[in-house]
Design a protein that fits this description.
This protein is of the alpha+beta class. It folds into three domains: 140 residues, Hnrnp arginine n-methyltransferase1 (Distorted Sandwich); 141 residues, Rossmann fold, CATH 3.40.50.150; 154 residues, Distorted Sandwich (Hnrnp arginine n-methyltransferase1), CATH 2.70.160.11. The protein is 17% helix and 30% strand. The strands form eight sheets. Strands 15, 18, 19, 20, 22, 23 and 24 form a seven-stranded antiparallel sheet that branches. A five-stranded parallel sheet has the order 12-11-10-13-14. Helix 7 links the parallel strand 13 and strand 14. The longest helix is centred in the middle third of the chain and has 16 residues.
Length: 457
């Protein structure tokens, strides 16, 4: 991730130190291990280790390029790194840092204390482990085991489940939906293990069918492994892995669906554009013939929102290529997703980004509703437009687009995925040329249900 944006939220507990060194003159080993002793520079708790590359660009070892966050000072030579080198100060989309989170609640350290860390690398990954945590995790493993079933969730997804405000809002919506139902058949139409467990806890008489289109059998195995510790019975939960286009009553044991819910969250699709979660609408359409007349659908509506943004760093990083060092690079613009500097005849794509990590950013307008997706009805095409009024100051480089999910029929519980929320990526529509001294512009969007794609101009 881009750690530049967290400079004011991070407290450093050590000086930078070297972990591995790779000599590209020869083939690197496919496996390596090392143990590093780190001197703590302050009291605190180690929640994460941030690592990056320092690249030596010449034979003589005089030219170095660092991909460190901009708030990292040049390290001292006794830490195994060059005594000085330039840290790049320009935001670059392709230079991210690696953030490894320590286990549990972190590792307590004390100023001038010695911290021992084991590091391991393969051909494609690097992992760390603190000695004290390694010993403690063996004890923890004896107390609770998932029988070897492990599901890798993104840090953002883990953070969502750890957010008490998000959990309380979802549980409030679930409680409201369940109060109106007696022994309901609930279908979880996404990959949410959280919703499956929550329903099992809140309604002991519910029958639950989880689709788990991404997790599939692994989701079922995980639910089974944690059933006893979480106080629910797998007798009430069924995971159905099917690619059917239409369901029948045979699939639900001759019972109609009373509650259809999703976060929505689809495993493996978190890096995609926000409207890819409209898969939920597709699942709802697939189940249309077996929904009860008073079915409760959650979320019941999706609202496409947009605002104008100043994104100078992101726009520069996505500017189209022309002649570089005498070579014509225009052929790769479409492959690389170039946006800025395109000819007027070419439409730039919408790309997914965590806007809060995109260097210098500023909102230049209020938030506007472009279109609404009525999830209570079957999948259909949608079209919408809005005139966006820009502020007098600032250069507009593009627009942020996202979906707000309305979780209840009263519209009181809305889960926003906009730029102010760090857990979700937004769609970014960069302009071919920035807008300067422009009062307003029009955003026009169309949703194609056959492809699930949203076109924006």
């Amino acid at each position: 991730m881009h750690c530049d944006a967290m400079g004011e939220e991070i407290r450093l507990l050590s000086e930078p130190f070297k972990i591995f060194e790779f000599d590209f003159w020869k083939r690197p080993a496919s496996h390596g291990e090392t143990q590093v002793h780190i001197k703590a520079t302050d009291d605190g708790t180690v929640h994460a280790v941030i690592s990056w590359w320092v690249l030596q660009l010449d034979d003589g070892g005089e030219i170095f390029y660092s991909t460190a966050p901009k708030w990292i000072n040049s390290p001292l030579s006794q830490n195994g790194l060059p005594s000085s080198y330039p840290c790049t100060r320009d935001w670059c989309d392709h230079w991210k840092q690696c953030v490894w989170f320590s286990k549990g609640k972190g590792l307590p350290v004390y100023k001038d204390g010695d911290v021992c860390m084991d590091a391991t690398h393969t051909d494609t990954s690097i992992s760390y482990e603190f000695k004290a945590q390694s010993q403690r995790s063996e004890v923890d493993h004896l107390e609770f085991s998932t029988q070897g079933i492990h599901i890798d969730l993104s840090p953002e997804r883990i953070a969502i489940y750890g957010d008490s405000h998000w959990r309380l809002a979802i549980l409030k919506a679930l409680n409201s939906a369940l109060q109106k139902k007696e022994s309901p058949l609930c279908v979880i139409a996404d990959d949410s293990i959280f919703l499956t467990i929550a329903i099992a806890h809140l309604s002991k008489t519910s029958r639950i069918i989880s689709l788990f289109p991404g997790l599939r059998e692994k989701g079922s195995q995980y639910l089974q492994a944690i059933a006893d510790e979480n106080g629910y019975s797998m007798d009430l939960i069924e995971v159905i892995n099917t690619r059917k286009q239409q369901w029948t009553m045979d699939d639900t044991h001759q019972k109609k669906v009373d509650l259809l819910i999703g976060e929505p969250f689809y495993f493996g699709a978190e890096g995609m554009l926000p409207w890819h979660n409209l898969q939920f609408w597709s699942k709802r359409t697939m189940l249309d013939s077996i929904l009860s007349e008073d079915v409760c659908i959650m979320p019941c509506k999706g609202i496409l929102k947009a605002c104008a943004m100043s994104l100078p760093d992101l726009w520069r990083s996505r500017r189209s290529l022309e002649n570089i060092e005498g070579f014509d690079h225009t052929m790769v613009n479409s492959t690389l997703g170039a946006c800025g500097g395109l000819s007027s005849s070419k439409e730039s794509p919408c790309l997914p980004f965590f806007i809060w990590q995109c260097g210098e950013i500023e909102k230049l307008s209020d938030t506007y509703t472009i279109m609404e997706f009525d999830l209570l009805k079957p999948l259909s095409s949608c079209h919408g437009k809005a005139e966006v009024k820009l502020r007098e100051t600032g250069v507009c480089h593009g627009f942020a687009l996202w979906i707000d999910w309305v979780m209840d029929s009263s519209g009181s519980i809305v889960m926003s995925t906009g730029p102010d929320e760090r857990y979700w990526k937004q769609g970014v529509k960069l302009l071919a040329e920035p807008l300067v001294n422009v009062c307003s512009t029009v955003i026009d969007a169309s949703f194609d249900p056959s492809t699930g794609e949203l076109s924006v101009s």
